[in-house]
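Page 37, continued from 36.
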């Protein structure tokens, strides 16, 4: 960032807002000036909110998207991890409900010898956030300074933190603002947000998990593919190997939603247990991480290696080590009772017999936010203990009275609202849905691929 460049001196946020509102194309200077002024605190939230909404409604050209990504990337430090041996590979998801794959993948790929420098975000809108999940582990510190980030990476091969004041600070501010101003769902803003953080990490390769379906920001596959291509192109332009998997988010991933509950499910998967959809997706993404990390010749071999690392306990050991190095209580990994627990629970029963044909995924995410598992305003804190456990998912047969889901809560009024949303989310019909959605829809950009 160069806060004293001549272009920033004559910059007026109102001009940039108006230009975008009217469908104009912003110059690199205008975008850079806005990002820099906001990062410094010179342009207020309300003006940037207006600009973000104009971008959501008007879109951006490829040149504007590249300029925004660059400006956000250069708002802070770009790490140089070349002194650490081995390829540095990260994975990032565009956000979903019950998506806890990052917590499985960082230690799993590190156990295989890939270096995983992971900078993640908090819950956004109805989706959960990796940092919020990690913070459900008592003591876990996601705010490590860069020097400690390097130390943990060097010691155990993976480290998971949030944006620091040093790394992509512009995204940290913009992300929090978008969360509460209805300005998340723009492929251009999502691309710049994700890629600026990822490119600042000093990675060689990146595996992207682009979600599609009712719980994703990109509801249909066409929009997800557009975002995937935008991100692959942006990464390649910066000389990185990037692959994007378009994966299903038409129902929550796994059975548990809520920060501490999701940590429990992560540990299950790292023990070789856990729900099949979550386990399969983790293995597929790990296969790509190992392949791009140069430790397996093919993706299929990377998957097999990952299975072995789970079976031997090496991946779980790595997770325990990372938790400890980041200040977390490693006993929670072996004894989930040490994780935060909600005071109350209530179970939702099926009103009739039949098959679950739909689970309105976004509504389930919103129900978790309402319980306190996510934020409705920027300054809200999250309750790590609350959440939802699904007992029946799409395709399952149910009998009248069967438990469909359990809500874990700490506030009665919130639980009542969440329950209503959850009830409305389940659709039960006499026959199963004819089409089964695949877990992995498509793969975009196949760098050095050998399947
Ligand atoms: N994840 C991010 O990091 N940024 C977004 O904008 C959306 C999902």
């Amino acid at each position: 960032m160069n806060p004293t460049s001549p272009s920033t001196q004559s910059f007026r946020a109102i001009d940039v807002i108006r230009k975008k509102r009217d469908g104009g194309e912003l110059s690199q200077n205008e975008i850079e000036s806005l990002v820099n002024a906001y990062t410094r605190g010179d342009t207020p939230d309300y003006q940037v909110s207006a600009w973000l909404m104009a971008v959501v409604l008007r879109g951006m050209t490829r040149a504007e998207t590249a300029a925004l990504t660059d400006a956000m990337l250069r708002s802070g430090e770009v790490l140089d991890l070349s002194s650490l041996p081995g390829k540095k590979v990260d994975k990032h998801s565009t956000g979903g409900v019950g998506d806890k794959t990052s917590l499985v993948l960082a230690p799993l790929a590190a156990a295989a010898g890939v270096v995983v420098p992971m900078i993640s975000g908090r819950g956004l809108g109805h989706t959960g956030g990796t940092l919020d999940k990690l913070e459900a582990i008592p003591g876990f510190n996601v705010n490590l300074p860069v020097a400690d980030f390097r130390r943990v990476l060097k010691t155990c091969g993976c480290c998971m933190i949030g944006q620091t004041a040093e790394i992509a600070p512009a995204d940290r501010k913009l992300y929090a603002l978008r969360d509460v101003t209805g300005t998340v769902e723009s492929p251009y803003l999502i691309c710049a947000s994700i890629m600026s953080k990822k490119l600042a990490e000093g990675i060689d390769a990146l595996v992207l998990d682009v979600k599609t379906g009712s719980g994703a920001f990109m509801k249909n596959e066409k929009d997800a593919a557009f975002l995937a291509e935008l991100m692959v192109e942006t990464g390649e332009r910066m000389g990185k190997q990037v692959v994007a998997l378009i994966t299903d988010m038409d129902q929550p991933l796994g059975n548990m939603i809520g920060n501490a509950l999701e940590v429990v499910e992560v540990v299950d998967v790292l023990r070789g247990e856990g729900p099949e959809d979550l386990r399969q997706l983790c293995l597929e993404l790990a296969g790509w991480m190992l392949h791009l990390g140069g430790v397996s010749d093919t993706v299929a071999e990377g998957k097999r290696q990952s299975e072995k690392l789970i079976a031997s306990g090496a991946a779980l050991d790595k997770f325990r080590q990372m938790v400890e190095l980041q200040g977390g209580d490693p006993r929670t990994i072996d004894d989930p009772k040490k994780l935060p627990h909600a005071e109350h629970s209530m179970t939702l029963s099926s009103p009739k017999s039949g098959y679950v044909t739909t689970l309105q995924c976004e509504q389930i995410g919103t129900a978790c936010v309402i319980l306190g598992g996510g934020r409705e305003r920027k300054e809200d804190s999250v309750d790590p203990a609350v959440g939802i456990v699904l007992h029946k998912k799409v395709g399952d047969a149910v009998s009248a009275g069967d438990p469909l889901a359990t809500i874990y809560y700490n506030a009665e009024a919130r639980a009542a609202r969440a329950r209503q949303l959850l009830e409305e989310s389940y659709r039960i019909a006499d026959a199963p849905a004819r089409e089964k959605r695949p877990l992995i829809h498509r793969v975009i950009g196949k760098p050095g691929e050998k399947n």
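Residues 1-8 have pLDDT under 50 and may be disordered. Flag for discussion at group meeting. The longest helix spans residues 221-237.
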